Amino acid sequence: MDQPVLVEARKLSVEFTLRKPLLSRRPAPVVQAVRNMDLSIRRGETVALVGESGCGKSTLGRAMIRTAPIARGALRFDGEDITHLRGEALRSARSRFQMIFQDPYSSLNPKARIFDTLAEPLHVHGKTSRAEVRGKVSEILDAVGLSPDFAARYPHEFSGGQRQRVAIARAVILQPDFIVADEPLSALDVSMQLQILKLFDELRDRFSLTYLFISHDLARVFSFADRVAVMYLGQLVEIGRAADITANARHPYTKALLAAAPSPDPEVEATREVPVLKGDIPSPAFPPPGCRFHTRCPIAMEVCARVDPAMTDFGGGHMAACHAVHPGGPSPSRPDPTEVKKDPTA
After folding, report:
1. Spatial separation of the C-alpha atoms in residues 293 and 247, rounded to whole Å
2. Could you count the other beta carbons within 10 Å of the beta carbon of residue 63?
3. 239: part of which helix (H) or strand (E)?
4. 143 with 203: CB under 8 angstroms?
5. Residues near 102 by beta carbon (within 8 Å), at least 6 away in sequence
6. How wide is the angle at C-alpha 56 spanned by C-alphas 54 and 57, nearest 5°?
7. What are the beta bridge partners of residue 239?
8. pLDDT tens-digit profile of 103-113?
9. Is the CB of residue 212 less than 8 Å from the CB of residue 47?
10. CA separation (Å) from 217 to 51, 84, 112, 187, 338?
11. Do 35 and 216 form a contact (C-beta atoms < 8 A)?
12. Confidence grade of residue 163 (pLDDT, cut at 50, 70, 90)
């Protein structure tokens, strides 16, 4: 039986206005960091969000825990619309969703003991009993594989892997429902990455966690995630079960990412040719018309430069937005949330 949806974004967009050029009469350019995003995550599920650097993955993750401004669209958490929550209501809700950052050293206060770092969220959300706080800190350190005695130490006394365990402990100590993990493996060596992935699995089972796991390393996430969502230039281009994406990727961008992933066989890796996408990623402030990937796509058609393809359902929750793979010809267009509709009576 499927679990209920815990987090749901509907037509969600995040925009940032750049500084207006000096003496320019043109309006300040707007970066569409996330555009018209539909994404739902079920309770207990791990969804991996993958794509190249600068495609908007981290911005989407922050928007889904309400730390990035939502320009348009809606965000629901456990059935409640939290798009416009403010003040005390938002602070209270944040105890149920947390974030783990890419660099564990810069995300920890170097002047604070580990005990104080872990105790802070407990104090903020109303747990003030000294005995209760000490018990919680010791429990969570043990859960992430660290000795409770480490609570008296400072971040510089730990290795990179140990600091990441502390960062994970800080996110989990409130026992939230939803965690956004933003590239939590990128600063670690390969052996430590495997240990941290195993820890994520153990914590998910122990505390009934739900993850949005942001990464650019497809080789790692396919063995860990239930579903994979592929993002390009602020938009979702493909989503499906990890096994389905691996075996039968539909979108040419997904295929390129898969082909670029290193092979575990050293002989194969030494001889294989890695395809390189042509061109550079367009600026999100000035995205191309139509399909945003068409300027780099090896199978682009004339329609791709004019019409932004809508998602096509290939069954089993596997969906992709591409004219070339749409059954029966070009796919319909998806709506542009930035378009100003004219009044026909005007």
Report:
1. 22
2. 25
3. strand 235-241
4. yes
5. 182, 183, 184, 186, 187
6. 105
7. 229, 319
8. 888 889 999 99
9. yes
10. 9, 33, 32, 12, 32
11. no
12. very high
Using CA atoms, how far apart are residues 215 and 225, in angstroms rounded to an integer? Answer: 11
Which amino acid makes up residue 246?
T
How many residues are given for the chain? 346
Question: What are the pLDDT digits (tens) for 310-328?
Answer: 999 999 999 999 998 876 6
Rounded Cα gap, residues 211 and 48, in angstroms:
8
Q: What is the dihedral of CA 290, 293, 294, 296, to 10 degrees?
A: 160
What counts of helices (H) and strands (E) characterise the chain?
10, 12
Check: CB of residue 314 under 8 Å from CB of residue 334. Answer: no
Place of tokens 């993850």: 211
Residue type, 267: E
Among 51, 68, 47, which Cα is nearest to 241's?
47
The position carrying tokens 């942001």 is 214
Domains of the chain: 5-20+28-250 (3.40.50.300)
